[in-house]
């Protein structure tokens, strides 16, 4: 029994160690893409606790909306726009791995199209916007600090 527990402990330590090494070897561009991927996954899951967790406290979009105002709007949508099964009915279409990211020191930029899908018509985006995002590395982590948005197609659903 001690061998089994010891082996399980070793395997867990090796797994976490390997993840730490991979994270340490990741490029800044990949770390920014990972931030985008995590935000997409949290939004798609309708997670009110992890959505926008990598937006900086001083985030503002080009129109002056603060992180608090934007988070409040997203939370409202997650609570009030639910499908027949009770889950959040919207998801984001974004292939974060394909987003071009430019890093210069502790600043990064990325421009990408972000499509909002409604579960009632998942093959047709409800709304597509062009996002120009600015990121900053603070205390070793990347944060979204600014963004500008331009409508590409569709209509804002909420």
What does this structure look like?
This protein is α+β, with helices and mostly antiparallel strands and 158 residues long. The chain has a single domain (28-154), classed as Nuclear Transport Factor 2, Chain: A. The chain has helices spanning 2-25, 28-44, 67-80; strands at residues 55-61, 90-93, 101-104, 107-118, 127-138, 141-154. The chain is globular, with a radius of gyration of 18 Å. The protein starts with a helix and ends with a strand.
CATH architecture: Roll
* Estimated structural class: alpha+beta
> What's the tally of helices?
3
- SSE order in H/E notation? HHEHEEEEE
Assign an overall shape.
globular
**Count of the separate structural domains:** 1
Global mean pLDDT: 88
Model regions low in confidence, pLDDT < 50 over at least 5 residues: 18-23
Assigned CATH class = Alpha Beta
At the third CATH level, what is the topology name?
Nuclear Transport Factor 2, Chain: A
Number of distinct beta strands: 6
Major sheet size, sense and barrel closure: 6 strands, mixed
């Amino acid at each position: 029994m001690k061998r089994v527990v010891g082996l399980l402990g070793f395997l867990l330590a090796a797994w976490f160690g390997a993840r730490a090494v991979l994270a340490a070897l990741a490029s800044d561009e990949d770390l920014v893409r990972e931030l985008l991927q995590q935000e997409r996954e949290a939004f798609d899951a309708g997670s009110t606790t992890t959505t926008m967790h990598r937006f900086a406290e001083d985030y503002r979009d080009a129109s002056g909306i603060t992180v608090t105002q934007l988070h409040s709007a997203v939370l409202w949508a997650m609570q009030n726009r639910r499908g027949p099964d009770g889950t959040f009915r919207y998801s984001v279409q974004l292939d974060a791995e394909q987003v071009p990211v430019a890093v210069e020191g502790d600043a990064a930029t990325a421009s990408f199209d972000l499509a909002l899908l409604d579960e009632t018509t998942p093959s047709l985006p409800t709304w597509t916007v062009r996002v120009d995002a600015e990121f900053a590395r603070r205390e070793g982590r990347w944060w979204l600090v600014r963004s500008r948005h331009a409508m590409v197609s569709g209509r804002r659903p909420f």
